[in-house]
């Protein structure tokens, strides 16, 4: 039977095994999906061994998403652009294909959660400039947002994104992050602030425009303070759990041959 898994370190908290096993059951497909706890020094050995052990592919998560590119024989354009991979496909001839479906998952989740969302309606504001922000920036540019305002505690990381992704990005100082919300039709938190066990996001949110579409990549808790406040201000909110589910769709389809649907039942399966 075709096998897939998720490679990370640590890996115990990954929701991917439950998600893929749920779809395998739902569609009555043969296959299995396992968590693979792999230390940095063993990454190459493990990845090269997996196809020989019956694996058709693997997801890749922290801390391996950037390093794994060095092991790939083929890299998709979007993985090159983002500079990281979250999905490996082991080709029948033994070559390793690396892809990144995070940006796809981000947009698919936004479109499903806010069907009236119009990326062209106005600038997008992004909080954070880490690994997750790269996928968000590239997918929002793809979706034709007119401008991206980006603010990060460590400003040079936001400036690095600007020099890489170009003039449609405008860097805003972290102390003024609240101001950029006044212009924004789309607002995204890509920082880890608001996550269980982390500090809360302290950016003042009173500039949020009612009608703006607001999403948070944090999904533990699913309903973050940031989303709660945005809802109170009349914004349309989309939680981050859906991004995790949607990023898995193209991978599952490639590995197991059926394109799965993301529904309320899918959400319940991983909660
Ligand atoms: P990910 O892959 O999830 O984006 P990351 O690359 O470690 O993870 O990025 C974490 C993001 O959360 C960064 O934007 C980080 O800001 P810095 O670049 O300044 O580190 C942001 N972040 C984490 N803790 C923060 C805090 N206490 N205050 C402000 N921003 C924070």
TrEMBL record:
Record-annotated active site: 65 (proton acceptor)
Primary enzyme class: oxidoreductase
Known EC number: 1.1.1.25
Domain SDH C-terminal: residue ranges: 240-271
Every Quinate/shikimate 5-dehydrogenase/glutamyl-tRNA reductase domain range: 124-192
Metabolic or biological pathway: Metabolic intermediate biosynthesis; chorismate biosynthesis; chorismate from D-erythrose 4-phosphate and phosphoenolpyruvate: step 4/7
GO biological process: amino acid biosynthetic process; aromatic amino acid family biosynthetic process; chorismate biosynthetic process; shikimate metabolic process
GO CC annotations on file: cytosol
Binding site for shikimate: 14-16, 61, 86, 102, 219, 247
Coiled-coil regions, chain positions: none
Residue numbers binding NADP(+): 77, 128-132, 152-157, 217, 240
Shikimate dehydrogenase substrate binding N-terminal domain sequence ranges: 6-88
Catalyzed chemical reaction(s): shikimate + NADP(+) = 3-dehydroshikimate + NADPH + H(+)
Family: Belongs to the shikimate dehydrogenase family.
Record keywords, A-Z: Amino-acid biosynthesis, Aromatic amino acid biosynthesis, NADP, Oxidoreductase
Name of the protein in its database record: Shikimate dehydrogenase (NADP(+))
Pfam families: SDH_C, Shikimate_DH, Shikimate_dh_N
Function, in words: Involved in the biosynthesis of the chorismate, which leads to the biosynthesis of aromatic amino acids. Catalyzes the reversible NADPH linked reduction of 3-dehydroshikimate (DHSA) to yield shikimate (SA).
Superkingdom of origin: Bacteria
Subunit note: Homodimer.
GO MF assignments: NADP binding; shikimate 3-dehydrogenase (NADP+) activity
